[in-house]
Amino acid sequence: MKYPSQLKTLKNKIHFTSLGCARNLVDTEVMLGMVLKAGYQITDQLNEADFLVVNTCGFLASARQESIGSVHNFFQEKKTEAKVIVAGCMVQKHKDQLKEQFPHIHYFLGSGDVEKILEAIIADSPGEAVSNARSYLEWGEIPRQLSTPKHYAYLKIAEGCAKQCAFCIIPKIKGRLRSKPIPQILKEFRALVSQGVKEVILIAQDLGDYGKDLVDKQGLENVISLLLSEKGSFWLRLLYLYPDEITDGLIALMKADKRICPYLDMPIQHISNRILKAMKRKTSKQQIIETIGKLRKNVPNVVIRTSLMVGFPSETEEEVDELIEFIQKHPIEHIGIFKYSCEEQSTSAKLPDHIVEEVKQARFDRVAKAQMQVITQRNQKYIGQKIPVIIEDTHPDSPYLLCGRFSGQAPEIDGMVIINDARKVKNVPELYEVEITDVADYDLIGKAIRSLEKKTSLNMVV
User: CA-CA distance, 400 to 395, in Å (whole number)?
Assistant: First the structure.
C-alpha cells in the first residue's frame, strides 16, 4: 500500500479510542501509524477532532455496552461537522444494532479491516468495509505507532481461536486460529527493541496454540527460543496460556533465561471437574493443581495470574465452596473474578439451570473476599525484600508518589509498586532497587534505594 506524504486537507485531526483487549490495542496502533504516515494529526480532545475513531470490543454484553457508550459520547462531544468511524469486534457481529442506534455513523470497519482506515477517512459519503477477515495480523511494511509508554509494547503473534469453550464467542467473532509466521514475529520484535522497548509482551487469544495452523507446525517454544537468541537486555512476558499448554519445555526455557519474566497468565475458569467439563475445558482439577505445583517447584519465584468464573449454569454452592478451598490451599497471586455472562451465540446459552444475577453477585463477593484474604497474607512476604522495580510515572492519585512494577505485575491488569520515598529517583521510566516496606491490598509500598540502569541486565526477578 502506498501512503501520500501529506494529505491536502484542512480536516486533519483524528481522535482514537481503543476498547477491550491488548490485541485490539495493537490494531488501533496500526491505524494510528497509518494516519500519521499519511499526514494527519492525533488529538486527545474530542471537540477538536475532525474524525473520531473507536475500536470496539464485542466479547461480552458489558463490553458492547461500553462501546455503545463511547459512540454516544462521541456524538455528544464532537464538532458538528466531525465524522465518527466505528471499527472492531462489535462491528463484525452487531453492525446492524449500531446502525439502528446511531444512523449518522460515517463509516464501519470490520475487525479484520483496520488497514482501510484511510479509505474510511477520505470517503465523501457513509460506507463500510466489513469483510470475512474477522481478525487482523499486521504484515509487511504497514506502520504501527505505539500508544503504550515507551518502555513496553505488545507483540501479537496470533489471532482467532481453535478452542470451543462453552461460554465463549471469541471464535465466532475473531474466526479460526491464524498464526503469524516466525520471520514476521522476529522482524516486529527487532523493530520494537530498536525503538527502545524494554519489555515485549507476547499476546494472542491463546499463546499455547501458536503454530498449530502453520505448515511447519512450529510452536510457542520455537518462537521464544528464537527471540531469546537475540542479544541484549529485554524482558519477555507471556499472556494467556492454558494449563495444558504449559509444557516441560516451556518451564525449562523460563528457568534457563532470566529475560523471561517469571510470570504466567493461566486462565482456569473453575476447579470443579463437573463444571470444567460443562465448560468444555481440556483440563481437570488434578491437572491444574499439578501444573501449579510443577511451576512452583521449577520456577520458585513464579507469579501466576488466572481468571475464575462464578455463576456458570447449574453451578452449586458446594462447587463455589470447592473453588474457595482451592484458592486457600493453592494460592494464586492475581485472580480476575468474573460473573458468567450468557452470550446468545454461545453453547452454554442453551444449557438448563441458569443462575439469577443476585446469586451470581453473592458468589462473586464470596470468592473475591477469599482471594483478598489470601493475597493480603501472601504479599506480606515481600516486606523487607529489596527487589528490582521499573519505576514508570507519578501515581495516578497523587503527584507526591511514584509507581512502578516488578516482574510479577503486568501493565494495566495487576497491582503496582507505590514509591513513597523517591529521593533517589532521577529518571523515569528506569529500573531501580526498591525496598518493600508495606502492602496495600494488591499493591506493594516501598522506597527507592538505587538505580539499576547500566549496572545490571533487565532482570526483574525477586
Answer: 8
